[in-house]
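Lab meeting notes turned into a lecture example. A postdoc, R.K., suggested we walk through two folding results consecutively so the class can see how the record format repeats. The first protein's sequence and structure tokens come next.
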Amino acid sequence: MFSAPDDATAQRMRTARAFACTTLALADHAENPVWGYAGRTLSGAVTSAQGTGWLRVVAERPDKARGKLWDGPKTAQELLPPEIPRPALHHVHDWQAVGWTYRAELYQHSDATVISRSPVLEHDPALPGSWWAELRTALDSLAEVPTVRIAVREEYIRRTVPEYTDCDVGEIEWSTAHGDFHWANLGGPGLAILDWEGWGRAPVAFDAAQLYLYSLHTPATAARVRQTFAHILGTPAARVAELTICAQVLQAADRTPFYKELASPVKEYLAAAYGRTAAPRTGTW
């Protein structure tokens, strides 16, 4: 999803991946490994005596190697119900080296193909009706999972939504969400939901709202998202979720290319749905 980082970071992460493969008795088969933002993660296919798998290596400074993002995949494996389709996390291995803490996560192999290399959808994916039905079931099930994890902070919502959308927040209803529910984290034609780092409590309909707004370049798919999730996107509670996603996009539009491309349709949606116009400003999440 992201470009390779600077040479020093790339070499450090490749060395960490090679160490993980040796430690876990894996053969590296990642011809084109997948980079995370700023080289924080490096992922790709591996094989072992048990067959094909997927190895994800995460790096953090030791003082940050804890908390929501660090433990998200592990807690998702432990706490989420099986009707939420995702690759099983088989093994976790942590180590430290030269001022960094690393975590190797070994997942089962998935036959699903990531629907988009970018979080923002640019082409209609022509997914079967069964995929959409399974997606609705998965999010409905996820919404009911009890957790103390926080995907989106209330303080952030109440500060950022008025600043970037010129809308008030009002009452917030909460449910459990994936928290980063975009097209680069979804696989098909058999549904697979990837990247569970940030799951936790968020405004009701947060995942459906994100998927809808990240589909605005493809009207047919955007309409299918609204149809599939009409039971939550059509409720007053979804308002805060939509406004929060709009604020996130506009806040990051000046520093992230795919958000910049999405900013105009998001502003058009704000004007049509909420009678508001907004311009990108500088800020931090």
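The second example is placed directly after the first for contrast:
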Amino acid sequence: MADKLNILTALLYAAGDEGIASEKVESLLEINHDDVEPLLNQFDSDVFRIKRYGTKIFLELKPVYNPYIEALVIQQTERKLTQASLETLAIIAYNQPVSRSDIEMMRGVNSDGPVRTLIERGLVTVETAEARSQQLYTTDYFLQLFGLTSLDELPEDSTSDTKEEMDLFFQSLNNKGE
């Protein structure tokens, strides 16, 4: 059974935050339903624990490490986007799909650096299918990070009433610290 425990640990690690359904564990390890709980109870680690949520099984860090993980996440998110990156992100969000040359025409300057930064941070993705040039789109991570369910929630236009709202929105993007 120890070998099966190592295999289970590897599977849970590979599954990440999606976990694995109990039935899938039974199938992959070729064990029956009654053998799953005793196998989970054998797991012993100073760093990790195995938890069950509903029908899925997850590998998690023990809560004692949460302050360190939080500090790491905060440290990584404190890096703010430059004004050039924010402008580029706004252009992509409002005009997608958009090419790099379109962005440069709108901004009037080379935008390779800001585009690269946005791609590296997972806020923008590149698609080339059925297009003569690379087309840039915001990602679901962009929506998630800024609490949007869809792009329809972006401020709509730059009339005097909504220009202030748009400026505040994109300033909040930087304050949320991508």
